[in-house]
Amino acid sequence: MQLFSLLAASPLLAVVFIAIISLMIGSFLNVVILRLPIMMFREWKRDTLEMDTTLPKHPALDNLDQPFNLLKPDSHCPKCGAKVRAWQNIPVISWLLLKGKCKSCGEPISVRYPIVELATAVLSAALIIQFPWGWPLAAMLVFTWLLLAMSVIDIDYQILPDTLTLGLLWIGLLVNSQGLFTDLSDAVYGAAAGYLALWSVYWIFKLLTGKEGMGFGDFKLLAALGAWLGISALPVIILLSSVVGAVVGIAGILILGRDKNVPIPFGPYLAAAGWIAAMWGDDLTRWYLGSL
Known about the structure:
The protein has helices spanning 2-9, 11-47, 93-97, 112-126, 135-157, 162-176, 184-209, 216-229, 234-254, 267-291. By secondary structure, the protein is an all-alpha fold. The N and C termini lie far apart (48 Å).
């Protein structure tokens, strides 16, 4: 308790503390990002053999009898199988000490691991700008971590696991049952409106074009954001995510020569917009209304 009192009295110390804790959380998020989709694919493969051709290549999908979850098997090099020692698993520092390579075989270690860890630390520490030490800050840390994990998974596989989206939704309703960010009725209406907003766009687009413009995970993610921030935050979130998504998509086509028929995951844009709305949503709304 004395530590918490000290952190509450010193914003600088709180930032350092949050950053260090979040670096470790970021290391765990890397495990979630890597393993949770494979765990889902294993379940799908058990359910039907017809999906084999759509599944990614991964050793865990070749032998369904071997345990594979967030804890087992132990972290190891995918090429040589060497176990990752404790000192090799220190966030960011280990990657730098190893020079981005496996100590045993020299296989490159993706730079994305330290990037995710650093992003977790920076985004988490930035929360102290708007949320002083207390329960709102603790809740927003969980909010940030889940959004980051979902974003990277969606970039990799274009899926948003129900474990994360629905978990985020229920946590949002629970924290707002105590009025942490909005009242419970606003949270419930926000969840319902968030889901129905993208559900309606999905079906209108499909009826007009015969194509699916987004996945059902996007509906659930926007519902979760509505549950956390209330129905009034949805216009800002939808506007921000749509504008950024359109700009990035067009830039990818014009600058990088990306095939316009290749689907772009919308989850990361929703997640980024939701995080920005949590931080500065009221200011953005006032600015927008004022500019009109």
